[in-house]
Design a protein that fits this description.
The chain is of the alpha+beta class. Helices cover 31% and strands 40% of the residues. Strands 1-7-6-5-4-3-2 form a seven-stranded antiparallel beta sheet, sandwiched between helices. It comes from Pseudomonas cuatrocienegasensis. This is Polyketide cyclase / dehydrase and lipid transport.
């Protein structure tokens, strides 16, 4: 995918994340570690599986620091299903901010890390904006299909018993 296509994807996802159907989950924690150490760790997607229970693995195709516009992929397990996520880095501003937009077959959104140096460590804030509209549409379609099959089976069973 070209840089322009990723920029378009990022713009689409950002617009999407601001719609009424998007959900937001914000958490924060004070970490007794220097801000640069925290930033260096959390801005390495290949290490996310070490601390985030949904992350299984990630491939950044680079050994260095991720910069704005860089792409990477991650495999996650969500809703009991594994899915491949595609990301683009929207903001990479060490040591204070790191933001990505993502898309997958099940979920779309963004992850935003904001870090603040405190006298007793680093305040780490993580905001996940997401929509599971695709997952719900897939589930709804599957349920409709199951219902059609069930009624067909019911019809066949009762009519063949006559």
């Amino acid at each position: 995918m070209t840089h322009n296509k990723w920029t378009s994807l990022a713009a689409l996802l950002m617009a999407f994340c601001s719609t009424a159907s998007a959900e937001q989950n914000t958490n924060e924690v004070l970490i007794e570690a220097p801000i640069q150490k925290v930033y260096d760790y959390v801005s390495q997607p290949h290490r996310w599986h070490e601390w985030h229970p949904a992350s299984l693995s990630a491939d950044t195709a680079t050994a260095g620091e991720l910069k704005q516009g860089d792409r990477f992929s991650e495999k996650i397990r969500i809703y009991g299903q594994e899915t491949q996520m595609s990301y683009v880095v929207l903001i990479a501003s060490p040591p204070n901010e790191f933001k990505t937009a993502f898309t997958s077959a099940l979920i779309d959104g963004s992850i935003h890390y904001r870090l603040e140096q405190r006298s007793d460590g680093t305040l780490f804030k993580r905001t996940l904006d997401y929509s599971i509209d695709k997952y719900i549409a897939t589930l709804k379609s599957g349920m409709q299909g199951l219902s059609r099959t069930a009624l067909g089976n019911l019809k066949d069973t009762l009519e063949s018993a006559q």
